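To the wet lab folks,

You asked to see what we're planning to order before we commit. Fair enough. Below is the target structure as tokens, and below that is the sequence we designed to fit it. If anything looks off to you, flag it before the synthesis order goes out.
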């Protein structure tokens, strides 16, 4: 489990690519202070497992399902990535609940600046629109952000100067892909109200029948 508060930008030092898998070697400093084999690290919002490490970097495997479902396959040596260690139970919890399991790859449709803010309009599939509400949460390349507006097929975010400098989002351009993870609580609520263990949907009529709407 993560928070969407990016700890540092890592550098891709090497990529070993098969047809539908990757081995990434990533240079990092801050997060290496307590890394162990088997630790989970979010790389551009994707939960990956540390398979090897040194004092200044670590290695992770990208399996076929992750390769197909995320933008990691478009990484190049020399590019930076957002990094976050799994959240600690004894620390402050900023951001929001982030699982590190990407729901969709979106694309930056537009970008503009106003005062000290950088705005981005990011596309999503129309059927995913139910996960976006004004002032709700979304994770973009592992960064916890607030939805400021939504269209039929896109949502808007605003990056403060700190987010622009501390994450890779500040260097993105129109047309770039980004990993999207929808609000985890929204997905759980949707599942609970549309399905139960017996396979029967929870409908408005059933809620009324058992007195929940009275």
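Sequence we intend to order:
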């Amino acid at each position: 489990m993560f928070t969407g508060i990016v700890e540092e930008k890592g550098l891709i030092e090497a990529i070993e690519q098969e047809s539908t898998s990757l081995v990434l070697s990533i240079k990092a400093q801050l997060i290496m202070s307590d890394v162990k084999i088997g630790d989970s690290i979010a790389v551009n919002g994707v939960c990956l497992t540390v398979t090897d490490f040194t004092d200044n970097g670590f290695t992770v495997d990208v399996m076929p399902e992750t390769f197909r479902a995320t933008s990691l396959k478009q990484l190049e040596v020399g590019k930076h990535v957002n990094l976050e260690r799994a959240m600690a139970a004894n620390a402050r919890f900023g951001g929001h609940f982030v699982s590190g399991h990407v729901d969709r790859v979106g694309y930056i449709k537009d970008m503009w600046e106003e005062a000290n803010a950088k705005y981005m309009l990011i596309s999503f599939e129309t059927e995913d629109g139910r996960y976006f509400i004004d002032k709700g949460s979304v994770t973009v390349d592992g960064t916890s952000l607030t939805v400021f507006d939504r269209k039929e097929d896109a949502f808007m975010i605003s990056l403060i100067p700190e987010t622009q400098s501390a994450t890779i989002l500040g260097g993105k351009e129109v047309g770039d892909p980004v990993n999207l993870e929808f609000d985890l609580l929204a997905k759980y609520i949707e599942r609970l109200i549309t399905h139960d263990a017996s396979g029967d949907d929870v409908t408005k009529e059933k809620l009324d029948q058992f007195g929940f709407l009275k």
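Structural context that might help your review: The radius of gyration is 19 Å. Residues 184-194 form the longest helix (11 residues).

Thanks,
Computational group
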